[in-house]
Amino acid sequence: xxxxxxxxxxxxxxxxxxxxxxxxxxxxxxxxxxxxxxxxxxxxxxxxxxxxxxxxxxxxxxxxxxxxxxxxxxxxxxxxxxxxxxxxxxxxxxxxxxxxxxxxxxxxxxxxxxxxxxxxxxxxxxxxxxxxxxxxxxxxxxxxxxxxxxxxxxxxxxxxxxxxxxx
Length: 167
Hints:
YwgA family protein, about 170 residues
C-alpha cells in the first residue's frame, strides 16, 4: 500500500511543483503509458483518462503532511498547486525506489499545458487503434475542445519524443 504513496512522492520530488489537478492526472497517466509503473487505475472521464485512486492517494498524502496542497482562487475557478513537504522528503529516505529515471520526461510534461496533456492522454487512451481512428475518436469525444490538425501533429510528435526517452 505505502509503495504506491511513495511512488507518487518520488514523482513530486522529481516534478518539484505541479499546478492543477487535471495536469497532475494527465502527467501520471502519460508517464504510466510510457512504462513508469504507477499503480493507479484509470477510466475515461470528462477530461480524458482519470484515476479516482490517484485523487484519493494525493488527498491522503496531503492529510498526512507529506504533500502540500495549496488552493488558489482564480476568480472563476480554484486552482491547486502541489509541492512535497520536508516530511515527504524524509519519508522517501526510508523507501527503496526501483523506478526508472524519468526526470527528463517529467520536465517535458511540466512544460505543456493541461489542454495539450488532455489531448495526448486521450490519444494514448485509444492507442490500440490506428492513428486515423485515434484522431477521429478524439474529435468525437473531445468535440468541444476543437483540437486543430496542427495540435494533433504536435501531440503525435510529443508521444514519439516520450517513447524515445524510454529507449
